[in-house]
Structures are given as C-alpha cells and as structure tokens.
Specification:
The protein is an alpha/beta fold. Helices cover about 40% and strands about 20% of the residues. It has helices spanning about 50-55, 60-85, 95-100, 105-120, 135-155, 165-170, 215-225, 235-250, 270-285, 290-320, 335-345, 365-375, and strands at about 1-5, 10-20, 25, 35, 40-50, 125-135, 160, 175, 175-180, 185-190, 195-200, 205-210, 320-325, 350. Strands 5-2-1-6-7 form a five-stranded mixed β-sheet, with helices on both faces. Strands 12-11-10-13-14 form a five-stranded mixed β-sheet, sandwiched between helices. Strands 3-4 form a two-stranded antiparallel ribbon. Strand 8 (about 175) and strand 9 form a beta hairpin. The longest helix is centred in the C-terminal third of the chain and has 30 residues, at about 290-320. The relative contact order is 0.17. The protein binds 5'-O-[(R)-(carboxyoxy)(hydroxy)phosphoryl]adenosine and zinc ion (ZN).
Amino acid sequence: MKILGIETSCDETAVCLIDASGDLLASMEPLAKTGGDFRYNILGNALYSQIATHAPYGGVFPNLAKREHAKNLVPLLQSTLQQSHLLKYGTTSYDTEKTNELLEREPELFEQLSIFLAKYEKPDIDAIAVTYGPGLAPALWVGVNFARALSFAWNVPIVGVNHMEGHIVMAMMKDDTFGELEFPLLSLLISGGHTELVLSREWMHYEIIGRTRDDAVGEAFDKVARILGLPYPGGPHISRLAEIDRATYAQSRISFTVPMLHSGDLDFSFSGLKTEVKKYVESHPPQNDDDRQSIARAFEDTATRALIVKTKRAIEEYGAQTIVVGGGVSANTHIRAQLIQEATPLGLQVLFPPPELATDNAVMIALAGYFHAIKNNYADADTLRADAQLSL
Ligand code: KG4
Ligand code: ZN
C-alpha cells in the first residue's frame, strides 16, 4: 500500500511517500511479545525546514509558518513523486470549485496546486495521511486543507494522524520493520511542545501517565540556549557544548536542582530549571566558551536526570517491558546513552528513531497513517479539521 504523508504542525514542511505491507501482530496476553510481517520502505521524502526563517525571532511564528508551508507544499509534493518515479505528465480531471473552496484562504497554494494538477496525472497511491494535531493551528490547517484538496482531486482516501502517535510509531521502527517490542510498552515523548510518558498496554492504545506541568523539555533546551546566546533551535547547540565539557572535565563543575524529584507522581516540570540557569547566568555571566560549556552540561545533566527518574518510576509502576523514545529531543546523544545505561541492567529494550527521523518529518505520519488505513480508520475528507490541542 502506497501512503503519502504530509506534516505541517510546526516549522517543518514535509511530504513523503512510503510503500508498506503487513501488520504488527501483538498477542493480547499480558507481557506478550509481538511479531508480524510488517515491512516498509521510503519511496520519496522531501522536507523543508523553516529554521532559518524563524531563527531571528528565537521561536516559531505561527502565521509565518503557515505562509511558508503554503509556499512549499506543492514543490515538496512534486519532488516526492519524482523521487518515487510516480510523477507522470497528463491531466487530472477534478472539481476545481471544491479545491477552490478548500484552499480559499491559501490563494498561492491554490494557484500552485491548480498548475500542478493541470500538468500531472493522478499518481498511483492508495491513501493520504496528514497530521491534524497537536500543533500550531494555522500551520496544521494548511496541511489538512492541502491533503483534503488532494483527496478530492485524486479520489484517494484520507487518514488524520496524531503527530505524537507519529513520533511513537517512528521510534518503534528498526530498519524496514518493527524493532523488538514487548508490551506493556512505555513511550517517553520529548519534543519542543511535549514531555509525556505514555503507556501502551496494547498496540495502538495510549494512556498518558505523566506530563509536564509547564515547559516541555525541548522548550527548556531552546530557552537555555537563548540565555547562553546560542541560535534557535538550541537543543543541538546545548548538546554540542555539553559534550565538549564532558570530554574536557571528568566532573560537572556546576550543579542544578533536579526538578520534581520528590513529587510522588510521573509528572515533569522544566520552567524552574530554566529559571535556575537564568539566575546562575545573571550572577556568573559566562566569560568564554569554557563557561558556556559548563552551564550547558550542568543543564543537560539535570534535565536528563529528571527524565530518567520518572521513566524508571513508570517502568516499576506499570511493569513496562519496552521503552520507546520519540520526539525531537530523542536525537540527544547524552539522553540516549543515559537511558540505555539505566534500562540495560533491567533487561529492557530501549528503541530510538534514527537521529535524522527524530525531529518532525512526514515518514512518521505516513507510517502511523498506514496502521490506521489497514484498519479502515479513514477520515471524512469533507469534515476533517485541524485540532491544535489533540491528545493521544
Ligand atoms: O519533535 P520536534 O522536531 O518538534 C516538535 O514537535 O516540537 O522537536 C523539536 C525540539 C526542539 O526544541 C529542539 O531544540 C529539540 O527538539 N532538539 C534537541 C536536539 N535536537 C532537537 N534537543 C536536545 N538535543 C538535541 N540533539
Ligand atoms: Zn514533533
């Protein structure tokens, strides 16, 4: 089955095409291992990161993001189909009025899509999967309306995908199939907008058992980076500085307080840690790279500790057998190493997405969409709406 994935929830515009078959066959027995015949491969994958557009503002501007998505979706679609050898000259006959109605608020996108449909015939695809939440509302709407317009024009069914499920499913993959999974499965979702512990007693069932009470961990990385004068998004920069410090000094020279250590639940909080770093920087302004490296390391160590403590507690409370780590922050090498170090003695598998597919992309959306499509869980293209607050 060929699935086109579309992702526009934040500041990456992404389109991809995957070819997938089979399913994960999870036994209903408690603590059951999974098997199955699922296989997938990526036929085409095109992504435009708006980082450079938003960097001067130190964060993502929703309306600017929306404009950039509208400008880039058709070129990315074209590139994806070209890579997949599915771009064929011809004409798609479709109801132009319907497309016009759906893209009423995106005249530039309507214009580009009209030219595209007049030039190329309907590609051989089976379904369209699009992120419909959570995310920035204006950004989500462009992707959703674009997907709806394509669904009508090509007469192909549509699947609405929860962005967070996309991160989870992506992290479950190893090569062209699933990694070794055992349920109950615990997902640690760490991104710019989310920090959540999600329990799956069964495949495709999700229960949020812990969440951040304020900032997401990625947001804390980005804010601390800003305090240190580093560019947006700050996560990779903090990580790089922290690694230099670890290679230079055996021990961290500063220590911050691990937040929520004794909260007695599975929740997180990162805004206090950010404030502690801010106060430290105000009283000890960094004079050089060495100073910035020591602060970056101490922050990363502390944030990592907070994630580890609650993840371990969740493993104990729920008897989790597999740990899946998803979201942009799962690209962080220190967090990866620490989680593996904690989980290995417990005999647990920890699965991460390939670093290049840890941050937002359309492959994760096409994958999650595929598992809904094979269950016939399609959306109504007439009524599919973006839902900025969508929860798992
Ligand atoms: O999942 P994602 O691409 O977008 C959201 O859905 O939020 O995550 C983006 C977040 C940003 O906060 C970014 O700073 C962080 O992921 N990030 C990292 C690293 N790479 C990206 N944080 C820490 N270490 C990294 N290597
Ligand atoms: Zn994300």
